[in-house]
Structure formats: structure tokens, C-alpha cells
Design brief:
- The protein has eight helices and seven strands.
- With about 230 residues, it is an alpha/beta fold.
- It has a single domain (about 10-225), classed as Rossmann fold (3-Layer(aba) Sandwich).
- Helix 6 packs parallel to helix 7.
Length: about 230
């Protein structure tokens, strides 16, 4: 198994232990994960235990409508679609039609395509379209697209949710680069900007967690609208 991310053997072993003991990744999820090799960002999907966390957060929040920024092969989309249940809805935004085609096949394989709306195009533009259309508010938003646009996606998320909604932002630690001086990396700047915005917003309560494992050293922000 090749590793795109710098990941210590012990981290991978611990991930494997808990994933085998606790996470039910069936054939459809495994196929979706493996199909990421055919997308524009191979191996960028969340790990199995992270997908299970997203599903659990969805259920804990009682979410029936989920908005996802960044689809790729649809791996996390399947976790969300299963968590919202047959009467729920996931709207997922993907830039590339080639990725969307892979995701549609995976969603169909997982038998959840009927509860997913996959919108292709610039995510900020697609989100604005949802705002303009007066779309029913979402209960949970997962932001996992191009990191420089994180502030734009957060703004859209706040316009598309109601109080009590959960907002999760992925890939915020970036091997510790979030605290490194003068990285010149627009992805890091996007994380810092969205973190500052959340911290300054009295209507949001939030925390961040670092993660280590098969996806290297990273982490996520979990926020809730007050």
C-alpha cells in the first residue's frame, strides 16, 4: 500500500486496529475509496474511521439535510447519505465532471443515489445558487474543497443553515503548517482566515482536533451555530 501522506507506521497500525474493531466499511465504501485513484485528487478522501465519525456526527445532530463542499469519488458522501436515512437529502458540490461521474457510480453502487443531489461547477457559485433559490436550510455542512476558499464556503454555510446546525471543516492542521510562519501557502492562509472568522463570531461555538493516522498529521474544526 502506497501512502500519499507522511504517516508513521504506529499511526497506521492504530488506525487499522480501531477501524477493524469499530468501523463497518462494506464493499460499496471500499470500492468508493479505491476509486479515488481515478479522480483528480487520488487518495484525498477521508479515512474510514473519519468517515464513520462524519456519519456519527450527522446522526448525533439529528441531521436530515447535509451540504458537502467537495465530492471527489463520493466516499464521504456515502457516509452522509446513509446517516441521513431514506427520507434525508445530501447536496454535494463538485468542480470536475470527471470526478462527479466516478461519484455517481459509487453512490449508485451504495444504493443512495436517490437521496443525493450532485451539483457540478465552482462550489461558491453553486452555493450561491442554493442561496438565491431559497433552499431549505441544512442541518450539517462539511467543508472539504479547495482550502483558499474556506472563508467563502463558511459564509455560504452560515447563509444556508439555521441555529443548531453543525459545520465541519477538514484539513486544518496540514502537518502543523497552520502555525508555521511565512508559509506562503494559500491553503494555510485559507485555514487561518476561516479559523479567525469562527473565533470572532459570537454566534458560533467551535473547537479543533488534531488527528494522526493513515492520512498523516491533520485535523478538523467542528462548529455549531448557537
Amino acid at each position: 500500500m502506497s501512502h500519499r501522506y507522511e504517516s508513521a507506521a504506529a499511526w497506521r497500525e492504530v488506525d487499522a486496529y480501531f477501524t477493524e474493531a469499530l468501523v463497518s466499511e462494506d464493499a460499496a465504501l471500499a470500492a468508493a475509496r479505491e476509486s479515488s485513484a481515478r479522480t483528480t485528487m487520488p487518495d484525498a478522501e477521508v479515512a474510514a474511521n473519519q468517515g464513520a465519525l462524519l456519519g456519527l456526527l450527522t446522526k448525533i445532530a439529528g441531521a436530515r439535510r447535509v451540504l458537502e463542499f467537495g465530492t471527489l469519488a463520493g466516499y464521504s458522501t456515502i457516509w452522509f447519505a446513509r446517516a441521513v436515512g431514506p427520507a434525508g437529502k445530501v447536496v454535494t458540490l463538485e468542480l470536475e465532471e470527471s470526478n462527479a461521474a466516478v461519484a455517481r457510480a459509487n453512490l449508485a453502487h451504495a444504493e443512495v443515489l436517490d437521496r443525493v443531489d450532485l451539483i457540478v461547477g465552482q462550489a461558491a457559485t453553486s452555493a450561491q445558487g442554493l442561496i438565491d433559490a431559497g433552499t431549505e436550510p441544512f442541518d450539517l455542512v462539511f467543508i472539504d474543497a479547495d482550502k483558499p476558499s474556506n472563508p467563502l464556503y463558511l459564509d455560504a454555510a452560515l447563509r444556508l443553515t439555521r441555529p443548531g446546525a453543525v459545520i465541519v471543516i477538514d484539513n486544518v492542521v496540514r502537518d502543523g503548517a497552520v502555525v508555521a510562519p511565512d508559509t506562503g501557502d494559500p491553503r494555510v492562509e485559507g485555514v487561518r482566515a476561516v479559523t479567525a472568522t469562527i473565533g470572532a463570531d459570537a454566534d458560533l461555538e467551535a473547537t479543533a482536533l488534531q488527528t494522526v493516522g493513515v492520512k498523516g498529521w491533520d485535523g478538523l474544526i467542528v462548529a455549531r451555530r448557537v
